[in-house]
TrEMBL record:
InterPro entries: P-loop_NTPase (IPR027417), Reverse_gyrase (IPR005736), Topo_IA_2 (IPR003601), Topo_IA_cen (IPR013497), Topo_IA_cen_sub1 (IPR013824), Topo_IA_cen_sub3 (IPR013826), Topo_IA_core_domain (IPR023405), Topo_IA_DNA-bd_dom (IPR003602). This is Reverse gyrase. In the N-terminal section; belongs to the DEAD box helicase family. DDVD subfamily. GO terms for cellular component: cytoplasm. Keywords: Cytoplasm, DNA-binding, Isomerase, Magnesium, Metal-binding, Topoisomerase, Zinc, Zinc-finger. GO terms for molecular function: DNA binding; reverse gyrase activity; zinc ion binding. Gene3D superfamilies: 2.60.510.20, 3.40.50.140, P-loop containing nucleotide triphosphate hydrolases (3.40.50.300), Topoisomerase I, domain 2 (1.10.460.10), Topoisomerase I, domain 4 (1.10.290.10). Residues 316-472 form the Toprim domain. The keyword Ribosomal protein does not apply. The lineage of its organism: Archaea, Thermoproteota. Residues 488-890 form the Topo IA-type catalytic domain. The gene is rgy. GO terms for biological process: DNA topological change. It comes from the Archaea. It is found in: Cytoplasm.
């Protein structure tokens, strides 16, 4: 947990600046010298401080006596090296004494390419920094592989074994076995790095880089910032104590602009909210007052004087989230968590400073409607309706789910796994803590899961609150913990209504379909029926619209497409031959400069559509991948209708754009009015390539392993979001009319980028520039296809959103159900085709129950559910209306 004010200042004489700052700040300081300056510079700084009358000593080896004297005030400051291995940067835990850290120069490392000085840790740092400069993906992948191999193999070796390998390389001795394999890796990596740095273009890029420096010609040395050293050292100033986390101060005296830029940039990969402010005397005095206030409090607490304001200052709380991945991600925000098992449930324990949290997962819904009581699980009582819930049971063998009070699977006879054990574990933890915090997903379904948990735990705890965060990040969690609220009962009522409606209409309509077709594996639902209807209709119209498509490539490489009616094969071949020998005439050409704006960031439907189109991912898989990305803290909540961008989102984009291309390409946009939800966006300014690299380096450690598909979807989300925050592009648009045989064909496209903007991250397709005149045909391609193509999954979801049917949380489920029931199948090109079964079932439902499953009825009900959420209508009135409607379905003949 880090609570540090980070400041920087520039000075012509670093040592004089150190002396001046220590005189102003007084005792309780740690002075860190960059590793590249070495022990001689440590001594120089200490001597300068001593000459100014400051009680100081160097601390280069662990010495308990020196620390004790420092704690008592016999030494005002200690001076040592800024490195994660330095005894001054690790192992010092004196929250009442250490007030500030001064860095006498930016913490940095000089990395030699001499094989005699080879060290795996330094080679990894250098590889990571050079990755930005290689020109091919193949070389970037090679770098990632070297990093992964060096981390894996060197982690298996002791320090003396690494030294032995380096010595054997110097002596030209070849080692055998595992150590021999590592020796080969060291040599291969060193040769690869030398070859990279021998290239003129790489050396030029390093010199032009705002972050890296290269020194020396014969034996080049790369200077890189030491981020880990800075974090380790500055962390001595901010420690946990009984009142939370003490305030600290870190001041960097900038001796290298490039190293400082690199430090600021790379810190963002480790910490979400890091901000350096330029040192001013006024700000310095303000921060040191806060620092000293905490030190005074710590001293009083150490003396046993408990202040009134510190009674119950740190609360114990149970935080319940939905998934184990989310629980693991949160648990890692504040250091290494303590882990325990309770009734088969994993619980992580951490301290945030203000809370001691026990974090665990409900693993989704715990309760569901029973089937055997009342009317499909809802009991009518005196004009109202009472839903009857029981814990969910699951058969691990059959993967079937049940909610009635049974112990054995009715299909295979195995003992069911009962979610009741989760509730039992939560009750036990609730007894141990001051309060319960519900951190389920930020939507109506998450609210209902939270409400269920709250009802079950109410007798076991004094306080239950809801916290809401739209991204699983440390920043968002801390903000949520500061703003707990009560559970929104209107959202809960809307979800109860949705579940009852889904159960009633599903059971009744499914029963009718099953009886009609004598098949127990069929089902029907209010939303899936109109969606099935669209696919049935499009399948029919698509078959009727088959035409011949001719793609004609001209000698100037312009491609034009012309469509003609279905033609017999012999005639078509003659036409193609005629086209190949023909000359086309470009009649009219019009060109104009146009400004093109970027597309908005993703909402759920747009993400599903683009993932289907660009990555050929099904909607179910896309939602699973997005869920994983959300739970490990890489993207914001993925079930949203909003395209709004928050202030934090705009800052993330601005940081990335400024760093990558310069601030002139940034154009922050909110894209929508203020609301509860936001677009789907990355949570940090880290692109997919950098993310892959940081995972390989071990800088970013996620609660779940990412696959190439996860990274592909992340890349799609990241690029779309960054594009949405970039300047428009100025392009040349061309319109041409071309005479091809007896046809006149129009061609449109962009020919040139005059001024790039968002096109830097989302390139546009360019067509050749043409001029009036005759042009020969170079090639002709032919295919037969419908002019009204079959729907993709993404296109169906767009129609659902446009027509107000379904919600972000149900889009994927509706299509999955249609596919599972074999009402619809996917072609090899991932197009949706209605089957004969699907058409027959739809025709039956339309002819027998149209008024209950029409688009208008479904849209009206969705609107009513929204009004329940907003508190405009009573959910019980809607249930009564539904009940009378369902009774009519029940009485109808199959």
């Amino acid at each position: 947990v880090r609570k540090i004010a980070d400041m920087y200042t520039k000075a012509s004489n670093v040592v004089d600046q150190v002396v001046e700052l220590v005189k102003e700040l007084g005792g309780g300081g740690l002075i860190y010298v960059p590793m590249d300056k070495g022990a001689a510079y440590v001594k120089k700084v200490a001597e300068a401080l001593e000459a100014s009358g400051i009680k100081v000593t160097t601390y280069e080896r662990t010495k308990g006596k020196i620390l004790e004297k420092y704690r008592k005030g016999e030494y005002e400051v200690l001076v040592g090296i800024a490195s994660y291995r330095s005894p001054l940067a690790r192992g010092i835990d004196l929250p009442e004494r250490v007030r500030y850290a001064i860095f006498a120069g930016v913490p940095k490392i000089k990395i030699s390419l001499d094989i005699e000085e080879f060290r795996p840790s330094r080679a990894i740092i250098l590889l990571a920094n050079l990755r930005d400069f290689v020109e091919t993906q193949k070389e970037a992948d090679m770098i990632d592989k070297y990093i992964a191999d060096l981390r894996r193999f060197s982690g298996m070796l002791r320090r003396d074994e690494v030294e032995r390998i380096v010595e054997s390389i110097k002596a030209g001795e070849k080692l055998e076995g595992f150590i021999g394999r590592v020796q080969e890796l060291f040599i291969e990596t060193a040769n690869f790095l030398r070859e990279l740095l021998s290239r003129e273009n790489i050396r030029r890029k390093i010199k032009e880089s705002p972050y890296l420096s290269i020194e020396g010609e014969d034996k080049p040395v790369i200077v890189v910032p030491d981020v880990v050293g800075f974090l380790q050292a500055s962390g001595r100033t901010s420690r946990m104590y009984a009142g939370g986390v003490s305030k600290g101060l870190a001041i960097v005296i900038v001796d290298s602009e490039k190293a400082f830029n690199g430090l600021v940039r790379e810190l963002k990969w480790y910490i979400e909210d890091v901000k350096f402010i330029e040192l001013s005397r006024e700000k310095l005095r303000e921060v040191i007052r806060e620092v000293d206030k905490d030190r005074e409090t710590i001293r009083k607490l150490r003396e046993g004087r408990v202040l009134p304001e510190f009674k119950d200052i740190v609360k114990t709380a149970l935080l319940v989230v939905e998934s184990p991945s989310k629980a693991r991600t949160i648990a890692r925000f504040f250091g290494k968590p303590f882990k325990r098992e309770l009734n088969g449930i994993t619980v992580f324990e951490i301290s945030t400073g203000d809370y001691i949290l026990s974090i665990t997962a409900s693993m989704g819904h715990i309760f569901d409607l029973v089937t055997r009581e009342g009317f499909h699980g809802v009991r009518p009582l005196n004009g109202t309706f009472i839903p009857v819930y029981s814990t969910i049971k699951r058969c691990r063998a059959c993967n079937e789910q049940f909610s009635d009070p049974i112990e054995k699977c009715p299909f295979c006879g195995r003992t069911l796994e009962d979610k009741g054990k989760v509730i039992q574990a939560l009750k036990e933890i609730a007894k141990e803590v001051d309060m319960v915090l519900i951190g389920t997903d930020a939507d109506a379904e998450g609210e209902k899961i939270g409400w269920d948990i709250a009802q079950a735990l109410a007798p076991y705890t004094g306080e239950i609150k809801r916290i809401e965060f739209h991204e699983v990040t440390r920043r968002a969690l801390i903000e949520a913990l500061k703003n707990p609220r009560d559970i929104n009962i209107k959202l809960v009522e809307a979800q109860i209504l949705r579940r009852i409606e889904d159960r009633w209409i599903g059971f009744e309509l499914s029963g009718k379909v099953q009886d009609k077709f004598k098949r127990r594996d069929l089902s029907a639902g209010r939303v899936q029926t109109p969606v099935l209807g669209w696919i049935v209709e499009r399948t029919k119209k698509s078959r009727e619209s088959l035409m011949e498509h001719l793609e004609i490539t001209l000698e100037n490489n312009l491609k034009i497409t012309h469509i003609i009616p279905k033609t017999k094969k012999r005639e078509l071949n003659k036409l193609i031959e005629k086209l190949k020998e023909s000359t086309c005439k470009i009649l009219n050409v019009k060109r104009e400069e146009v400004e093109v704006n970027p597309p908005p960031p993703f909402s759920t439907d747009a993400m599903l559509r683009e993932a289907s189109r660009r990555l050929r991912l099904g909607v179910k898989e896309t939602m699973t991948l997005a869920q994983d990305l959300f739970e490990v803290g890489l993207i914001t909540y993925h079930r949203t209708d909003s395209i709004r961008v928050s202030g934090i989102g705009m800052k993330i984009a601005k940081d990335y754009i400024n760093d990558k291309w310069g601030e002139k390409y940034a154009k922050p946009r909110t894209w929508g009015k203020e609301g509860a939800h936001e677009c789907i966006r990355p949570t940090r300014p880290i692109d997919a390539g950098r993310l892959r690299n940081l995972i390989a380096l071990g800088v970013i450690r996620l609660a779940k392993r990412l696959t190439p598909r996860h990274l592909a979807l992340y890349n799609l989300i990241f690029n779309r979001f960054i594009a949405s925050q970039m300047a428009p592009a100025k392009l040349v648009k061309q319109e041409a009319e071309i005479q091809v045989l007896e046809w006149r064909v129009k061609s449109e496209g962009y020919t040139k980028i005059i001024k790039p903007g968002f096109t830097l991250i989302q390139p546009v397709h360019l067509v050749p520039e043409v001029k009036p005149g005759n042009v020969k045909v170079k090639d002709v391609k032919h295919w037969r296809a419908p002019t009204l193509p079959l729907f993709t999954e993404g296109e169906v979801i767009k129609i659902m959103k446009d027509k107000g049917i379904g919600r972000p949380s149900t889009y994927a489920k509706i299509l999955s159900t249609l596919l599972e029931r074999r009402y619809v199948i996917l072609t090899p090109r991932r197009k949706l085709v209605a089957t004969k079964l699907g058409k027959t079932v739809y025709d039956y439902l339309k002819s027998s129950f149209e008024k209950y499953v029409s688009e208008d009825t479904t849209r009206k009900l969705e609107r009513m559910m929204d009004e329940v959420e907003q508190g405009r209508i009573d959910y019980m009135d809607v249930i009564r209306e539904l009940h009378s409607e369902i009774k009519q379905i029940a009485m109808a003949e199959a």
